[in-house]
Amino acid sequence: MSAAAITANDAGAGTVQVALSGDWLLGHGLPGPDPVLDRLRKAPKPSSVAFDTGSLGDWDTGLVTALVAIHRSAEANGVQVDDAGLPEGARRLVALAFAVKEREGARRTDERTPFLQRIGESTLDAWNAGKELLAFVGEMILSARRFFTGKATYLRSDILLHIEEAGADALPIVTLISFLIGMIFAFVGVMQLNMFGAGIFTANLVALAMVREMSAIMTGIIMAGRTGAAYAAQIGTMKVNEEVDALSTLGINPMDFLVTPRVIALILMMPLLSLYSSLMGILGGMLVGLIMLDVSLQQYVQQTISAVGLNSLFGGLFKSLVYGILVALAGCQQGIACGSSAMAVGQATTQAVVRGIVLIVVSASVLTVIYINLGI
Fold this sequence. Notes:
Elements: E1 5-12, E2 15-24, H1 34-41, E3 48-59, H2 61-76, E4 80-81, H3 88-97, H4 115-148, H5 156-166, H6 171-193, H7 202-240, H8 243-249, H9 254-292, H10 297-307, H11 310-336, H12 342-374
């Protein structure tokens, strides 16, 4: 087996003679057509390209790939190609490659979008997403009015099922995360406060942090990744299967039948989950405090009770209620806006989680500022 080679020589009268020799077989280190391509681009440009395959041995698609590249370069530079010197099979394969024109935009390009253009496109996407969410909130308000006036069409069993999914089924993950967060807060508090001889105030730190902020926000993030994503996937899959269109055909409003029961279920469960999360966090902090501090169980409990007031308790519960509404709206809105493909369901699920978490963080910042100004 001889090594493949390619050369480009001037044959006079403006013709470039491309000599192909050796065995052109894939997997045997084939040379690239760069010498020929460079000659086609170099001034003065030739008028035609011819081939000399007298020394060509065995060949396969490796040869055809090189010939196609030469043909494309010649076409781009306005150079005629004479295929008479090629083997009959190679001529047919090259002709077949050019029988159908390449669809415009099919080839992947390396063009990069300018930075400012990307900023503008992202801003417009965010603006449109905000308008879509606002329109969805308006439809949700109308659906909620129909629900509470008895004019909505839904299944009561669906509400109970969604309450179970958003409540009891979420207890294991909420328990684990909240208990560990409480332990982390307590460990940090003990290590820092002990330096000032105020280790007992670790109970205050854990209780206030869990009740006012962490239980609500962590529960909201957990539900965004768990329940909000599930809502988007469920409704999105129904839309792909045209079940949502079937409901509309039957005269059933999809908002009333699919969205409102899910939103109500999450609104009812979020404050309860947040309260349970606060308890688990306090228990986790208590475990660390009793191990690392020289205090009794009664002292720790008494310090915790004295630290938590009704303002902190109800302030945290109100935050959890707001987070529940936002997570439910983000999940259901992405499900309703889902496209008609399996990929669209995955994208809707991802967007539901991302938007839910973003809305939680933004609303947490706003509510914290409001609480500080109101002295809560």
